[in-house]
Write a structure and sequence with these properties.
This protein is α/β, with parallel strands linked by helices. Helices cover about 40% and strands about 20% of the residues. Helix 15 packs parallel to helix 17 and helix 21 packs parallel to helix 23.
């Protein structure tokens, strides 16, 4: 029977689910190995079929309404003889009652390893395939992996490897490794089923049993029918060139300009002027007069020159009336700061939709509403709620929380991190996260895209855009609302295991997005991606001024999936030449408090030259000044007659060494193409996370804690591995 016939038969009978036997018929068609079984009607038939099958057997109740058979006592296993089968059949018939459509007889399969495979549909991302640890531990341990369909064999194989308990797929307690190809075919088969059978909403295979010989068999299955979640109306994409134009206005009109300190109409105008914007600035307020010695126009139509961007801060109810004026004036872009739209409820949502409809008809692009503004340091264009002026750089930052975004701008300024552009995306009435991805993809000045996201408007488009951008430049994402467990009402283990954040994370991993958990990690990662070469692998060399930090960093590397390889005899011999005989002769290389600057430089280069090292972390070599000042003061307090000239020379020499070491490691990164990350002893008012060396494509990066440095490196390794897997996947699929 063809899949469509199986489904039609069930729907004609008014069923919302296939029986277990029908479910397995459907799955077998899509290449999923299923247990051999027989459907019988009576107690006597059960006994006869069990004898033909051979003991021991399994007996189950069968029926479209029997979706949770174990809980109802409708599964009887390891039946050894006819008497046990007869008794089991009688119990099942009685327990199932009117819901019973038949009895199912299966051979009793033995396997120590049980997995779950499933399919469900997400309103944002569409069909999702799941693989995880099965049996009674499915929901208790929650060891599951998701992928957005369609998926190919390479992606299915990656799912197997990502499982925390993936060791169970190898040789296990005398049993053969699980048949990897059968597992891959099962996952790919579900992906095909999702594409070809739109009336299937969920599939749950639990357990998918691995026998002692490694063969894989679906011994229980459930297929649910119905209507898939209806995706929200898709918004038309914005031309990437239009996104770029927003950040390059030659003239700006502030509609709602004010002279009152602290008002949006005054604050935004002030930061723009203070940032030395070179374009033309126009102030608009129906009261006229002047502000800060500048003329104020009563309407935007009164401005004698053309206007590229209208920055609007007037009350929400009056914004719609601006559209005809902007159209007549030829203004193509509006930065809508005003709040009071969809974030306030149904009335505000309707007002926002009406505004967008009229703006589209007038060919006007709206950024916002309810936004904290935008900036482009390359144009000295700063128009944000927080008065920060980060320097020009290569990091494009978009935040669905304006406050969080502008705080990151202030931190970037304090740490001397360069910003390509920033946008607080606000309500995203017209320009969505997906549009920003497309815009920064084609922007040559953007090397890293950084996003703070609370929701996406179009999950499928986000996945496709992020993957496309990720092949060219890293996309770093912090997802807000990670603790939302979702409210999926599902009749299967598969649906019960899913949540909004799990599906979002799965989409991000699939697209090569670098996920972070804390706001500051956004800038840590973006600074590193914009400053360092990508590591070629996960092997780390560590050089440390003190042993304790080296031990801690080694532990952190192990926890983050980084390898700290043992030094080879040849490497030990080379380090022997520069360190005292009592050094540890291991990786991490402990400099045993040697203060000779040349020793730190030589040890760092030896690690970078080593074929077994993909990246270097140095600890305590920078930041010594924080201890030198108190040391000098203590020495003078104890002996006022000490040579002050000598003591004054020490800080100068330390700063000179640190400058030389920074220049040295940046040159080493150019020479060997491997990243070097630092951990400073402690920060002072002169400490910066990022330090540039003129003329070099790379920069020095140092963090204040080992965990920040290790986590950043691990994320960079993960991104590089994704790039390599994408390249491999493309070759296989070509």
């Amino acid at each position: 029977m063809q899949p469509s016939d199986i489904i039609k038969k069930a729907k004609h009978a008014g069923s919302i689910a296939l029986t277990e036997a029908e479910s397995k018929q459907l799955l077998k068609y899509y290449g999923i190995p299923v247990v051999q079984e027989w459907v019988v009607k009576t107690e006597a038939d059960s006994v006869r079929q069990a004898k033909e099958t051979g003991f021991p057997v399994v007996l189950k109740g069968l029926g479209a309404k029997l979706t949770h058979k174990t809980e109802r006592g409708l599964v009887k296993v390891n039946l050894q003889n006819a008497t046990e089968v007869r008794k089991a059949a009688r119990q099942v018939i009685q327990a199932a009652g009117a819901d019973l459509e038949g009895l199912l007889i299966q051979p009793m399969l033995i396997g120590k390893r049980e997995f779950v495979v499933g399919l469900f549909h997400d309103a944002q991302f569409g069909p999702v395939v799941m693989f995880g640890l099965g049996g009674v531990f499915t929901e208790a341990l929650s060891d599951v992996v998701f992928r957005i369909a369609p998926l190919d064999e390479v992606q299915a194989g990656q799912m197997l490897d990502e499982l925390r308990s993936s060791d169970l797929l190898g040789p296990f307690r005398g049993e053969q490794p699980a048949n990897r190809q059968q597992l891959i075919q099962a996952l790919v088969g579900l992906s095909r089923l999702a594409a070809e059978q739109p009336e299937v909403t969920e599939v749950d295979i639990n357990p998918l049993l691995v026998g002692a010989d490694g063969q894989v068999t679906a011994v229980d299955a459930l297929v649910i029918l119905g209507e898939r979640p209806v995706a929200k109306a898709v918004r038309p994409p914005i031309d990437p060139r239009a996104i770029g134009n927003l950040f390059y206005p030659r003239s700006i009109a502030f509609v709602g300009a004010s002279a009152e300190f602290g008002k949006w109409g005054q604050s935004l105008f002030s930061i723009l002027v203070a940032g030395h914007y070179k374009g033309r600035i126009h102030l608009v307020n129906p009261k006229g007069a002047d502000i800060a010695g500048r003329p104020v126009y009563k309407t935007i139509m009164d401005i004698p020159e053309s206007v590229d961007l209208a920055v609007v801060t007037i009350p929400a109810a009056r914004v719609r009336d601006l559209i005809p004026e902007l159209k007549a004036k030829g203004v193509k872009n509006m930065l809508l700061i005003s709040s009071g739209f969809s974030e306030t409820g149904e009335q505000g949502r309707q007002m926002e939709e009406d505004l967008v409809r009229e703006a589209r008809a007038a060919d006007i692009l709206i950024l916002g509403p309810n936004t904290m503004g935008i900036c482009n340091p390359h144009l000295s264009f700063y128009c944000t709620g927080t008065h920060a002026w980060p320097k020009p750089g290569s990091i494009a930052l978009v935040a669905q929380s304006g406050n969080l975004g502008t705080q990151l701008l202030a931190f970037a300024q304090s740490e001397d991190i360069g910003i390509r552009a920033f946008s607080g995306s606000g309500n995203e009435a017209m320009i969505t996260i997906e549009d920003y991805l497309d815009g920064f993809e084609v922007d040559e000045l953007t090397r890293t895209v950084v996003l703070y996201i609370e929701s996406v408007k179009n999950g499928r488009r986000f996945l496709e855009s992020a993957r496309r951008v990720g092949r060219k430049k890293p996309v770093v994402v912090l997802k807000g609302g990670r603790t939302d467990a979702g409210n999926r009402a599902a009749a299967s283990h598969t649906g019960a295991m899913a949540s909004n954040i799990r599906i979002f994370d799965a989409a991000c991993r699939q697209a090569g997005v670098v996920l972070v958990e804390q706001p500051m990690e956004l800038l840590d990662l973006s600074a590193a991606f914009s400053s360092l070469p990508l590591p070629r692998g996960n092997r780390v060399g560590i050089v440390t001024l003190g042993g304790g930090w080296g031990v801690v960093t080694t532990d952190l590397c192990s926890e983050q999936g980084l390898e700290v390889p043992d030094l080879e005899p040849e490497m030990i011999a080379r380090i022997d030449r520069i360190l005292p005989p009592y050094w540890s002769r291991s990786n991490p290389i402990d400099l045993v408090a040697e203060m000779n600057p040349q020793i730190a430089m030589t040890a760092t280069e030896e690690l970078l030259k080593w074929d077994c090292c993909d990246a270097v972390i140095h600890l305590g070599i920078l930041g010594r000044m924080i201890f030198v000042g108190p040391l000098i003061r203590s020495a003078l307090a104890a002996d006022p007659t000490m040579n002050r000239a000598l003591l004054d020379e020490i800080p100068r020499q330390i700063r000179q060494f640190e400058a030389e070491y920074i220049r040295f490691i940046v040159n080493l990164m150019e020479k060997y193409g491997k990243p070097v990350l630092g951990v400073s002893l402690m920060g002072d008012e002169q400490t910066r996370m990022v330090l540039e060396i003129e003329g070099s494509p790379y920069k020095s990066i140092s963090f204040l804690t080992p965990e920040r440095s290790v986590k950043v490196l691990a994320k960079m390794v993960g991104y590089q591995q994704w790039l390599q897997s994408e390249e491999k996947r493309n070759k296989i699929l070509m």
